[in-house]
Amino acid sequence: MDQYSTRQLYPKDPGDKAIWLDLLARTGLHPEAAADKIVGVFSADRLVATGARFLNILKMIAVDPDHRGGIAFNTLMETLLSDAFLAGFGKLFLYTKPESVRAFHVLGFHPIVQYEDRMTFMERGYPRIESFLEGLAEKKVAAKNAGAIVMHANPFTNGHLYLIEQALLSSDVVYVFVLSEDRSVISPETRMRLVSEGIRHLNREATRVITLPTADYLVSSATFPSYFTADAETVTLMQAGVDATLFKQKIAPALDIRIRFVGEEPYSVATSLYNRQLAAILNTNPTLTIIPRKEADGLPISASRVRALWQAGKCDELKRLVPPSTYRYLSETPYSEMS
Question: Are residues 49 and 97 in the same domain?
């Protein structure tokens, strides 16, 4: 019986990097820079399994074909799970190929959604997606034609507001999902507050716009894995595939959403690919509607444009780009400060 040992791998070390890249290549994976810790499992002096953790996501899990289905995988996962626990993460996520789902299920991971025969999104710990969906259902408003928008709102701009206003022209109610991930200049709590304040006037006569968190369930580019393929276009299509499948199978039914609205992004090839994939998978159930971007001074209003002006201290130029509540926050808050 093989005897296994584990230790942390350091990609900046030439020796560690060489054996790590070799194992990833032999198992059809590609390296990603974003990792808080990389673990290696050794048989004698040979690296036979590796995996990494980035925040509460396990990734780049690879096992030498000669050591699969046994102790090497279990040793690797025990080490990764222990590391995540010590780092304070009780809830974990991972993406894997469908043929590997059973192995992870034994360790307490449960499928959230499967995208075709290419990828499965899984979770371990509580609360699970069922609790998230129950929470959404509690916010459901009776409507014949409900719409939905997913936005980062970093920060909330007049472009976002215009998208919501246009969505309301063909929807009884619009659910606005604000990304919950805490990897932005502005915290999730503040972004949610600015959206809520910015749309308050739309709810004066009746509740027609409802803001909701995404928790960990609507796909974020910061957490989506690119290690399954080196091709950027394929990564974008897979990300949109998982997002659209999750939205179609789980989110939309919970709120009876009939339309998903997205903003047009004429200057981004990746966003164009993403929107086309969304449309193909949603396939009218719900439908996808792309709204042309609102412009100011001949340029699309974007959050990145607003952040650049904010960082440069040009607050006067922000007034025509953001709602009053966002303007107050930006003018009173230094760019480097997160609140």
Answer: no
* Residue 52, pLDDT above cutoff 80: yes
Question: Do residues 286 and 258 touch, judged by C-beta distance below 8 A?
Answer: yes
Dihedral sign from CA coordinates of 247, 249, 255, 258: positive
Burial of 268 by CB count in 10 Å (0-12 exposed, 13-18 middle, 19+ buried)?
A: exposed
Question: What range does the domain containing 168 cover?
Answer: 132-332
Residue 337 inside a domain? The answer is no
Measured distance CA(49)–CA(176) in Å, rounded:
42
pLDDT in tens, 188-247: 999 999 999 999 999 988 899 999 999 988 866 545 777 677 677 888 888 888 889 999
Contact of 210 with 141, CB cutoff 8 Å: yes
Q: How many CB atoms lie within 10 A of CB 161?
A: 20
The two three-digit tokens of residue 187, written as one number:
């915290």
